[in-house]
Amino acid sequence: MKITPTLSRLIAVSLVICLSNCAKNPVTGKRELSLMSTEQEIAIGKESHPSIVATMGLYEDPKLQAFMNTKGKAMAAISHRPDLPYQFYIVDSPVVNAFAVPGGYVYFTRGILAHFNNEAEFAGVLGHEIGHITARHSVRQQSSQLLTSLAGIAGAILVPQLGESFMQGAQLLQLSYSRAHESESDEIGVGYSSKIGYDANQMADFFATIKRIQDNSGQSVPNMLSTHPDPGNRYTKVHEMAKDYQTKNPGNYQVNRDTYLRMIDGIMYGEDPKQGFVENNMFYHPELKFQFPVPTGWQHQNSPSQFQMGPKDGKSSMIMMLAKGNSVEEAAQAMVKELNLKVLESAKQTVNGNQAMVIISQQLPQQQQQGQQPQQQQTAANTLQIGTYLIQYNGNIYALHGLSSAADFQKSFPTFKSVSEGFRTLTDPDKLNRKPDRVYVRQAPRAGTFREVMTAMNMPASRIEELGVVNSLKADERVEKGTLLKVITK
């Protein structure tokens, strides 16, 4: 290959960046490109935390929080970066997830805590998340993205007609980096959880629970296009790593099943109805006392800060959120300015007795910065058009935004209109007083299969698989009398 002057300059730039910013990774001991200092990592965590809390909310459980803090501090002390200001939080989400932010911030959802069946499973995932922080995966990902971009530019310059396919290949390479980081964190998690006395085989078993959840949801993706390794593969590999660790380091590794189960007795399970819930194609918010329809077949996602929904074809969507301002007029002005909108139509009206304003707008293109590529020509197909209903209700201004391309807007707007004009006061006592499901821990009243025992505990047949996932048991598995099991009820 002939080295062109342009490529030579790019290589020189890459070498200068690497030589001036390479640092030793605290986990691997290898020198690698680092574009972020420890102080910057900590700053990112501090800046991210308020928005995470605002989006997901915190789950208040002093007993569980104290347990998480104790185990987190013990693990941080034996980690590769014990001097970071680690902080541990339980977020109020039913999703089975845990994640970490640079600088030492670790988050577990109440959903994942409800699915663990012993302390060792918890410790394995905790080690995995702390591993992302100690191995500086966010920093390494950022650095590799820079070099991938430089390589992509070089590829496009050298062979312009292959530039697009090269970048697609680079994006797949980035996914493999993410998978590599996940696998590395699995290994770190085995080590960290073992060092504080837990059996890392239980971490592997939890991946079987993750795979079961994934298989039941029907949302699995090809491994090549997943940022996480397949949980079935992780189950096997983590068992191998745990066996290898324990062979080299013989000891009495703990599981602590019953102590963990007693600790989560009463934890909330699934959606918190106080934050809103969907039933029979209607969204109800008992705390704020309103309701509005959800179109048939639309998927939806709720959080403390907003409610999103849309059809599976992805051609339109709706977002419901609080708007800024003391009146619909103020809210409209703030929205247009903040979202950089061009107003096409606006009109005041009432929605079931509430003052409202309807605004049809389009999002203006971002101003082109000097040196950027020329902007794509704006067409009806690539222009975002928004139909917004601002509704004043009980001292708040609520915004219901309907979004689609300008080309599809006329077809989509009747649905946006029907949903928004269906906004009304919630008065049904059953919905206003809806209680959440909770996980309760009970002793098996008899021996038998898991299905038989759940039936004896008055659990409905329709929830046997769901209960099996939560308990990490199959319907035909043998359960002995007196075994602690989770049930789900109000």
Query: Distance between termini?
Result: 69 Å
Physical arrangement of strands within the biggest beta sheet: 10-11-12-16-15-14-13
User: From the alpha-carbon coordinates, what is the Rg to the nearest angstrom?
Assistant: 26 Å
Shape: globular
Compute the average pLDDT.
84
Main sheet, how many strands, which sense, barrel?
7 strands, antiparallel
Proportion of strand residues: 15-25%
Total beta strand runs: 21
Q: Helix- and strand-based class? A: alpha+beta
Number of helices: 15
Low-confidence stretches: 1-22, 142-177, 219-227, 368-372
Q: What is the percent of helical residues? A: 40-55%
How does this structure look, described?
Keywords: Hydrolase, Metal-binding, Metalloprotease, Protease, Zinc. It is a single chain. With 490 residues, the protein is an alpha+beta fold. The chain is 44% helix and 22% strand. The chain has helices at 5-21, 38-56, 62-78, 110-115, 119-134, 137-158, 163-195, 201-217, 231-248, 257-263, 328-338, 409-420, 429-432, 450-456, 464-471; strands spanning 22-24, 31-33, 87-91, 98-101, 105-109, 267-269, 277-278, 282-285, 290-293, 299-302, 306-310, 316-322, 341-351, 354-363, 384-393, 396-405, 424-425, 437-443, 448-449, 478-479, 484-489. The strands form six sheets. The protein has a seven-stranded antiparallel β-sheet, with helices on both faces. The protein has a four-stranded antiparallel β-sheet with strand order 7-8-9-17. A three-stranded mixed β-sheet has the order 3-5-4. A hairpin with a 5-residue loop joins β11 and β12. α5 crosses α7 and α7 crosses α9. The model is unreliable at 1-22, 142-177, 219-227 and 368-372 (pLDDT under 50).
